[in-house]
Amino acid sequence: MSRPVPARDVSPDTKIEERAFDGVHWDDLDLLLTVIKMGSFHRAADALGFTQPTVSRRIARLEGALGTSLVNRLNNGATLTVDGQALLEDLGIAQAAIERIRDRSRSRKPLRGDVKLVTTDGLAVYWLPYFLPFFFDRYPNIEFRIQTVTDTRQRSSDQFDMSIHYLQPTDPDMLTTRLGTLHFLPYASPGYLEKHGTPRSISDLGHHRLLDYILYLIDKGSWRTRLPDNVGDSATQLFTNSSAALAESVRQGAGIALLPTYGTAFHQGLVPLEINMHFETMFWLCYRKSSAERAAVRATVHFLKHIFNNKTMPWFGDRYVSPSRFSTVTPEEIMQTFLTADQVSPFPLQSGKEK
């Protein structure tokens, strides 16, 4: 069954009697469907951007209004009671009619516009393309322009609607939201390890061919600043300011480089080297208030937040998780829980950090 339109999370003090019928709030019915689809209160809260106590409170309010229990609260999730199943079947009939009306409305008023994003070539090559088919299927009339730069600070904010930063922007006229954390490990290809052996410690790297990422010609690179002096003096044979060139060089067996773990979430052919060495950097999505007033930009921001969800994808989480512990997942599975921008309330248009 298609997802209904989830409601804006309202405070207990907000008057929403106009959305209620005999004490039943339509918003809570929508929320019940999300809980059952996601299988738990916690996952529903994450998908909708609510807190778990808010979801629990609103489901309890619905049960109180109907005078019956709708959800079995289990240690490992939530299931429908008999009365909950009967309600779900009735809602399905109503939902089908609502979806037909909405589809006709969308066909008459398609979301249009162009959106300009600037980001690094690593994210532009090794993450975004997996999800663009879903984006274009849902928004066939949005023109998405992605431009890559070595350092996102080099871009002009007047030329782009949004950008992804490795340093938190301080411009008070910009809206920012932290997407997550990138975790970096040494990586090599199976062919390189077969030919040159597998390093078992940080000191072993001194006997291997290293490849490095630099921002500028005078940059010392990542290895020199993170390895002990006696190891850091090892000859690094490649310096590049292109994340994509670095990753492909590793994939082709040229040497060992520090790469973000998200690159192996879907890919095969790169081997993470667990030698007690990793580092991380947070990254942010930044967009102008004037841009966020456009529906196409709001839709794109919502899409980006979903595909960089640090609560459901460990490679973007705050805490380091070894790639060996990544669950097998596909872009299709990640997009199954995607609630499009017209299914959620607009985020507040306020300056500074987005709440």
Structural description of this entry:
The chain is of the alpha/beta class and 355 residues long. It folds into two domains: 93 residues, Arc Repressor Mutant, subunit A (Orthogonal Bundle); 245 residues, D-Maltodextrin-Binding Protein, domain 2 (3-Layer(aba) Sandwich), CATH 3.40.190.290. Helices cover 35% and strands 20% of the residues. It has 13 helices and 14 strands. Strands 5, 6, 7, 8, 11, 12, 13 and 14 form an eight-stranded mixed β-sheet that branches.
Question: What attributes characterize this protein structure?
Answer:
single chain; 355 residues; alpha/beta; Arc Repressor Mutant, subunit A; D-Maltodextrin-Binding Protein, domain 2; eight-stranded mixed β-sheet; 13 helices; disordered C terminus
What's the short version?
The chain is an alpha/beta fold. Helices cover 35% and strands 20% of the residues. It has two domains: 17-109, Orthogonal Bundle (Arc Repressor Mutant, subunit A); 111-355, D-Maltodextrin-Binding Protein, domain 2.
Label the CATH architecture of the largest domain: 3-Layer(aba) Sandwich
Beta-strand portion reads 15-25%
Instruction: Give the helix proportion (percent range).
Output: 25-40%
Radius of gyration: 24 Å
The beta-strand count equals: 14
Major pleated sheet: 8 strands, mixed
CATH class category label of the largest domain: Alpha Beta
Give the SSE string: EEHHHEEHEHHEEEHEHHEHEEEHHHE
Shape: elongated
Q: Structural class from helices and strands?
A: alpha/beta
